[in-house]
Structure formats: structure tokens, C-alpha cells
């Protein structure tokens, strides 16, 4: 080596790199087309088992997106009332909570959201029983929906437009 020239860095200077013959998978062997989990386009990805739902409905992604859209509309409608009931003290609100929780239980079950379905079932039953804990369950249910809504919104927004929308006039032929 000529005087003043630096020696090449050793392999230990690059801990993430391995030799091409190494059988251990590393970031150096990961194909560039594989997206990292952090770059997922859906916030809070993982709450809804999308692949399981699409498999259950024989690959009909549009149908699954429709289920998500309907659940989203329902959850957005009920979220404010859940919060109000959770913070309120009127006895007359418990039948309404039972109705709302029952509705959420059904949509959560359709989306395979078992933890939310079970919480909604508990809130439904507590409200029917007149249990004061029903209000706390309503608050917990609202918190779970707050965490879920961004994922449902992302699924709905990522759906490709499939033809004219219902209020879009069709072109003349």
C-alpha cells in the first residue's frame, strides 16, 4: 500500500452487511421492492385482519371494503353518543347504549374484530342490566373505535373507484 493511503474498512465496520454467501437474512439481502412495515399506507395497520376477511369472502376486496365503509359510517355516527353516555348520568341513556353497543357488536364481528366485539357485548349486557359499569364500558368502546376509525378510513380511501358513482350521470351512447 502506498504511503498515506488508508486501508479499506474491515467487515466489522459494517455490521448490517454480510457476505453474499451468508444464509442469514439481512437488510442487504432484502429485495428493494419489499416495503418496510413502517411505510404501510394504513395508519394503525393490523387492527383489522384484511387478508382473513378477503379470504373468507373469496378474494372480493371490494366487498370487504364495502363492509369497512358501512362499519365506518356506523362508528362515526355512534361515537359521539357513546362519549355522551359515558360522561352522563341519566338512566334513560342505558337502553340507547344497549342499542348502540349491540350494533357495534355486529359490525365488529363481521370485521373479525373480536376484542371490540366482546367489549361491545359486555357494554350491551351491562346496559340491559342497568349496571353502572356500562358507562365505563361505553368510554372504553369509544376509545377502541377512535383507534380503529383511521384504519377504516384508510381502507375506504385506498379503494379504487369502480365505475360511475351513484349520483354521477352515465355518459350517453
Automatic annotation (TrEMBL):
Matches recorded under InterPro entries: HPT_dom_sf, Sig_transdc_His_kin_Hpt_dom
Keyword Ribosomal protein attached: no
Biased composition (Low complexity): 1-31
Region described as Disordered: 1-45, 152-173
Name of this protein: Hpt domain-containing protein
Parts forming coiled coils: none
GO biological process, one term: phosphorelay signal transduction system
UniProt keyword Ion transport, yes or no: no
Species, as recorded: Thauera aminoaromatica
GO molecular function annotation: protein kinase activity
Residue ranges constituting the HPt domain according to the UniProt record: 76-148
Keywords: Two-component regulatory system
Pfam families given in the database record: Hpt
Amino acid at each position: 500500500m502506498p504511503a498515506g493511503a488508508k486501508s479499506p474498512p474491515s467487515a466489522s465496520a459494517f455490521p448490517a452487511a454480510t457476505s453474499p454467501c451468508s444464509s442469514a437474512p439481512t437488510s442487504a439481502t432484502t429485495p428493494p421492492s419489499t416495503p418496510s412495515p413502517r411505510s404501510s399506507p394504513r395508519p394503525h395497520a393490523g387492527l383489522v385482519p384484511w387478508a382473513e376477511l378477503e379470504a373468507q369472502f373469496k378474494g372480493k376486496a371490494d366487498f370487504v371494503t364495502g363492509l369497512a365503509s358501512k362499519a365506518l359510517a356506523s362508528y362515526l355516527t355512534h361515537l359521539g353518543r357513546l362519549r355522551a353516555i359515558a360522561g352522563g348520568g341519566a338512566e334513560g341513556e342505558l337502553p340507547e347504549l344497549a342499542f348502540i353497543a349491540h350494533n357495534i357488536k355486529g359490525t365488529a364481528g363481521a370485521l373479525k374484530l373480536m376484542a371490540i366485539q366482546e367489549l361491545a357485548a359486555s357494554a350491551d349486557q351491562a346496559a340491559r342490566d342497568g349496571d353502572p359499569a356500562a358507562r365505563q364500558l361505553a368510554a372504553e368502546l369509544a376509545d377502541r373505535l377512535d383507534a380503529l376509525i383511521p384504519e377504516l378510513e384508510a381502507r375506504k380511501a385506498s379503494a379504487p373507484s369502480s365505475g360511475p358513482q351513484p349520483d354521477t350521470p352515465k355518459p350517453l351512447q
